[in-house]
Write a structure and sequence with these properties.
alpha/beta, 17 strands, six-stranded antiparallel barrel, Elongation Factor Tu (Ef-tu), domain 3
Length: 362
């Protein structure tokens, strides 16, 4: 009997390495695939893809599986990075990791895997897939601190039907122990952060290569000018660092935060105090919604949602759905609801999908 073939996306990190190891141990015919998706400055100190490839090859050799490198940088630029720049230029703060999963890892990569004779792909994401009555559900990982369902919420039924997440029931600490026990050279390698496939780098400096600076005024909601900004694209709602107005202490003496952008007048609106009312939203409107089951959730049903990745689930209700837009109301006000980011809705452990935040409301 021929073994079922699975292609594993291997990044050179410990999570995808242990994913490949576990599947090999379970008797699958495993092929590793290393994706290269960024070429603009690949020789810079911030792009670690050369070392990552060496790590992935080393692990594949230890496990005893073949590995192939594939270049998706054209697809990444067209499908992910161009969107990323358009959103920043419009004053929003996009989440490229989410689009990267939907367009690269579970589209371009999946298509390539099928050409290699596989019907299933696996990644090192901390999440789970479950089939119930012919419908595929995306579930949270058992390790709540590492759960990545937020980043996978735009996957559809077809993509989930071909996906496996072998780390979904493991703790990160267990994954590192497994890697060390089996002699994987990257067992202690630190987790990557930064932009999907672009790596860790000084973000403002990076963005400045692609977007022009357009300086303007920083003002309070009352209209007082308290500083200058370098361009609205370079700031995000809730930002505290890098505003350069520490000296402009108004009466409260509290730190300054970005609370809004006036695109028409090129003004950055700032307030003092983490819990300023202008930073809190009881409701939000969102566009371009995507529901994993293919059907929108029930209105006025008690769900929970995240408006950013590192956030506890917040009890909420969907109050309206019109086409691909929706409105969500929260029981407790949400801090720094940011246009361009994703609101992701959960029913217990099940990720229902989400939408792109357009605006937060009082």
């Amino acid at each position: 009997m021929t073994k079922r073939r699975i292609v594993v996306g291997m990044s050179g990190g410990v999570d995808s390495s242990v994913t490949a190891l576990l599947l090999k141990q379970q008797g699958y015919d495993v092929i590793g695939l290393f994706m290269k998706n960024w070429e603009d400055d690949d020789n810079s100190e911030y792009c670690s893809s050369r070392q990552d490839l060496l790590d992935a090859v080393s692990v594949a050799d230890t496990i005893g599986i073949p590995i192939e490198a594939v270049n998706f940088s054209k697809e990444y630029k067209e499908r992910v990075f161009s969107y990323f720049l358009r959103e920043y230029q419009a004053g929003r703060t996009p989440n490229p990791d989410i689009l990267c999963n939907a367009e690269i890892k579970f589209k371009a990569f999946l298509e390539h895997a099928m050409q290699l004779g596989a019907n299933t792909i696996a990644t090192g994401h901390y999440a789970q897939v479950r089939e119930v009555d012919g419908l595929y559900q995306l579930l949270k990982a058992d390790d709540a601190s590492k759960d990545q369902s937020y980043f996978l919420h735009r996957l559809n039924q077809a993509q989930l039907s071909h996906a496996m997440f072998p780390l979904g029931k493991l703790l990160k600490s267990q994954v590192r122990v497994i890697a060390e026990q089996h002699g994987l050279s990257n067992y202690a390698k630190k987790d990557s952060t930064g932009i999907c496939f672009i790596g860790e780098r000084p973000f403002r400096e990076f963005l400045n290569r692609y977007l022009p600076t357009q300086p303007g005024e920083m003002r309070t909601p009352d209209g007082n000018v308290v500083g200058q900004h370098m361009g609205l694209s370079f700031y995000t709602i809730g930002q505290r660092q890098g505003l350069g107005i520490g000296g402009a202490k108004e009466a409260s003496g509290e730190p300054w935060f970005v609370c809004a952008k006036d695109m028409a007048r090129n003004r950055l609106i700032v307030v003092q105090g983490h819990d300023h009312p202008a930073l809190l939203s009881h409701r939000l409107t969102a566009l371009d919604s995507h529901w994993i089951s293919g059907t929108a959730p029930l209105l006025e049903h008690p769900f929970a949602a995240k408006t950013r990745y590192r956030q506890a689930d917040a009890p909420c209700r969907l109050t309206s759905i019109a086409g691909s837009s929706c409105e969500i109301a929260f029981i407790e006000p949400q801090w720094a609801v940011t246009p361009g980011q994703s609101v992701v809705v959960y029913d217990g452990e099940v990720c229902l999908g989400g939408a792109i935040i357009e605006q937060g409301h009082d």
